[in-house]
Amino acid sequence: MLIKNVHIENDPEVKDVRIENGIFKTIGKNLEASDDVVIDANGKLLLPPFIDSHVHLDATLTAGDPEWNETGTLFDGIRIWSERKQTLTKKETKERAIQTLKKQASHGIQFVRSHVDTTDPSFTALEALLEVKDFMELQLVAFPQEGILSFKNGKNLIKQAVEMGVDVIGAIPHFEFNRDYGVDSLKYIVELAEKYDKLIDVHCDEIDDPNSRHLEVLATLAYESGLKNKVTASHTTAMGSYNDAYVYKLMRLLEMSNINMVCNPLINMHLGGRFDTYPKRRGLTRAKELLENNVNVSFGEDDIKDPWYPMGDGNMLDSIHMGIHATQLMGYSQIMNSYNLTTNNGAKTLNITDHYGIEVGKPANCLIFNTDNFYNELNERKELLYSIHNGNVIVKTEPAEIKTNF
Questions:
Q1: What residue numbers bound the domain in which 386 lies?
Q2: Which in 37, 198, 205, 337 has the greatest CB count within 10 A?
């Protein structure tokens, strides 16, 4: 395959990209076509594929069952899901997950990290999602939704999930009964990660409580254990409520630890500030300041029509659009480069940079949009013309024809 005349990641110059045997073979100007399939992009935008760094495929498409989350709080979401998961079956969980993954793929997502609830002793959802891993490059996180030390047999359940084949180990320290349990849960999963050679991704301080400070513990453990960039802190919304003096101190530790951070703008803008009158907090982590302090930040979608979020279409452009508004990443260059939040930064979060990116020698995974740069794409939502995975076109869209009669 030869892709001609593309702007690679906002590059003002157009180049050609040759793909052979599913690998980026050559990138340059005026490459000659041989017997290749030729896509003349005619000045369109070429990006690496989208990555959803944080989603919950076990709960996807369950909004309203058994009831709608009318309060919009995180805690009511957990209560409703606790009831809903009692009726899970492998068949319907797989069907919902595949339906969502297909929708995500149609929007250019090729890599997904999904959390799956392990506080279900039957492991119905985990067994189901382990069977859909071949559909897309999918990392699964053993996620103890109702706690590790605060849930009966929680430590053994998460250990069992690791032995069943998850890629990542999770925790939820702020939801444990007390801070001591939260700290101990983090120490426990670090021990597991070291023993089983797994990544870590923690739902960390997802609460508007400035006293919820498990992030400093997780970052310290990442630093001292040497796991560093194998560790991710998701949400960290309490950081938006920390005082600035404490954040100044914390930033040094975060940079030293080389930890990854995931911000979920859609869901946390919805769930955050629910216990405030006014002023009402946005419920987001300090994404802009983290980036300025050389901390890797990627965006996730988190929830798609489930007890925590009644909307969602599997489109990372929605997360970017909401996120850059809410975190004030709205300078022109920031908007132009915001695609990194769901591409290259996400690859660092998932630890897949060895086989991700538009570089010679790497797998030929890329997207072609019907525009010339990402500023225009985010504004105008032009069509995803092609999604190419391992050199094969997996999504193709014909440009819309719109006629106005005035």
A1: 2-48+357-396
A2: 205
